[in-house]
Amino acid sequence: MTEDVIRLLPDSVANQIAAGEVIQRPASVIKELVENAVDAGATVIDIILRDAGRTLIQVVDNGSGMSDTDARMAFERHATSKITEAADLFTLHTMGFRGEALASIAAVAQVDLRTMKRDATVGTRIVISGSKVESQEPEACVPGTNMMVKNLFFNIPARRKFLKKDTVELSQVLREFERLALVNPDVELSITHNDTLLHKLMKAPLKRRIADLFGKSLESQLIPVATDTSIVRLSGFIGLPAHARKRSALQYLFVNGRNMRHPVFHKAITNCYEGIIAPDMQPNYFVSFDVDPDTIDVNIHPTKNEIKFENESAIYQILVAAVKESMGRFNASAGIDFDLADAPEIPVFNPDAGATHGVELATGYNPFAMPAPSAPPTPSVRPYTPQRISSGINVQNWEALYADFTSRRDEAVGSVPTEAEALRPDTQPALIESTLDLTSTDTGAEPATPGYIQLDNRYILSTARSGLMVVDQHRAHIRILFDRFMATGSAEGLHCQSVMFAEAIELTPVQSATLKAIEPTLRTMGFDPTYLGGTSWSLNGVPAVLPDGRAAETLRDILDDAASDTGIDGAETLRRATALAIARSSAIAGGTRLSSAEMERIMTDLLMLPEPDYTPDGLPVIVILPVADVTRPFRMFDR
Ligand code: ADP
Ligand code: MG
């Protein structure tokens, strides 16, 4: 005889399971609570946190408030005041609609809610722990809702353990806060963590809010996008190409007042920057889409971030056109930012300058040769190379970076061969001899030394014993600089160069807190930060090797790294991360034309290193294409 085994789960268990989807960390609680407050018509919302939200998340709003029955009902699953029938799903005007959030939160935390309707005389207080209502009583309240969520995941140790360090959780919270603040610029918002006020944002137009959140400098870095068609109204801002970022670019898409992820529209925008900014840079953007609610489906993802558009391809076209138009308009009216006036001189191939050996000639730079008096000065040509605009690499600095290499290399020549030996070009460049050759040549032209060929302004090609050696110039330079920084840094610290006019750097609250924590280590790397109060700092000194204007950006990279999931614990790891960040921003960019001498210098220095094949963070630097692969197209015709 069989026994039936299927049973309905008790609500508390079902809620806990459902909570797994909606509530992953303190940031998700904040999202849900703030969205509820916005839906309730609040104009002022205050967020208070303890221990990155681990022990307390409190959201206080001046919205509609709830009756005592509603306050009780709100914690039931699928309890919502926002939709009543399936059809309402297609005309959503609120952030919430599933009636899942409060039930989920109450299942995994201790909730203490005080709420009062605007016209009521007495409010209600309800205490719930792990889905169980412990008490509900009338209480004198101010109109609105005051929701405290304590000890998140107190009843699910596994989930609690899964939470990251406070710095990481707090940075997630702040990311969420930023998104919420951007979609609700007309709501006054504050966030306080462990008694420190991190943000206090007044009601403001979007551009002001962006600046309030991310720093005043943003205001001058954004250009408006706007277009109005029958299927979509676009508005917002895109970043000037010159202010594209290598990391943590500010990229936000909104639809009908809701934050969204949309990889296709992201592509649409970033494609417009192609060829204008370096390939490893990302533009900032803040773009809102207003569409008829019944042409989108917000229901496809439980955290409601991914959104399906009925008219996706048409909107794609409109978006691209709008972004290009804005860029064009800006370029025409205020072309100064696109001006190449202060772009560095780039060595270019000049066929008339006597490159008799078929090797391109360095016009501005030849580290080996004294300028030959008999050689007519080559006119310096500044080709339009858009990547230069944002790369900020100054060839002069770049040369300086190399200045110290010569001696080190000369010492190293003739030292014990390393495993790099196997990768060396089979025609070993005779360095010392070639230097002599160069200085004695009276044409100033390159002799026919083993030539390196540059491909696509990105790769250096050479022959190796087993095939064709392809070297990524940017990564190669990162590897070289990194090794050098680590070598120098371990001895006496990276040389710090004082800044003539220290400028204030606005950091995010997390970056500022991180900087406080790692300041001593940063000093050994050549940074000299001074705390100005709030989240402002100044850099009175920067590593001498850093190209002009890259210090603040590099510092932010380091701080973001230090606060990111991987975390940086030991001082040594931090030093590595710092060295890598500095190497990244100082390294010669992909897309930069190199002279033969420059290529030779890079290759020589690279192949001298103990581990030339990969960047410090594990990206390939050298690739060898076997002879058989290179010659395959020929052999297809073999008889
Ligand atoms: P949803 O937002 O999807 O409706 P929730 O579980 O987040 O579901 O909230 C349930 C209900 O509780 C809401 O529909 C709303 O009626 C009420 N509610 C929640 N938070 C607030 C608030 N801050 N002010 C007023 N009412 C609220
Ligand atoms: Mg909700």
Question: How would you sum up this structure, described in words?
Answer:
This protein has 639 residues and is of the alpha+beta class. Helix content is 35%, strand content 20%. The protein contains 20 helices and 23 strands. α14 (473-492) crosses α18 (596-607). The longest helix has 22 residues, at 312-333. The model is unreliable at 332-448 (pLDDT under 50). The structure holds adenosine-5'-diphosphate (ADP) and magnesium ion (MG). Adenosine-5'-diphosphate binds next to α2 and α4. Adenosine-5'-diphosphate binds at residues 32, 36-37, 40, 61, 63-66, 74, 79-82, 96-103, 145.
CATH architectural type of the largest domain: 2-Layer Sandwich
So, the CATH homologous superfamily of the largest domain? Answer: Histidine kinase-like ATPase, C-terminal domain
Binned, the helix content reads 25-40%
Instruction: Output mean pLDDT.
Output: 77
CATH topology of the largest domain: Heat Shock Protein 90
Low-confidence stretches: 332-448
Q: Look at the structure and give the CATH class of the largest domain.
A: Alpha Beta
Shape: globular
- Please give the number of β-strands: 23
Q: Please report the number of helical segments.
A: 20
Describe the main β-sheet briefly: 8 strands, mixed
Strand order of the largest sheet: 5-4-3-6-2-1-7-8
C-alpha Rg (nearest Å): 30 Å
Which percent range describes the beta-strand content?
A: 15-25%
Ligands: adenosine-5'-diphosphate, magnesium ion
- The domain count comes to 4
Secondary-structure-based class equals alpha+beta
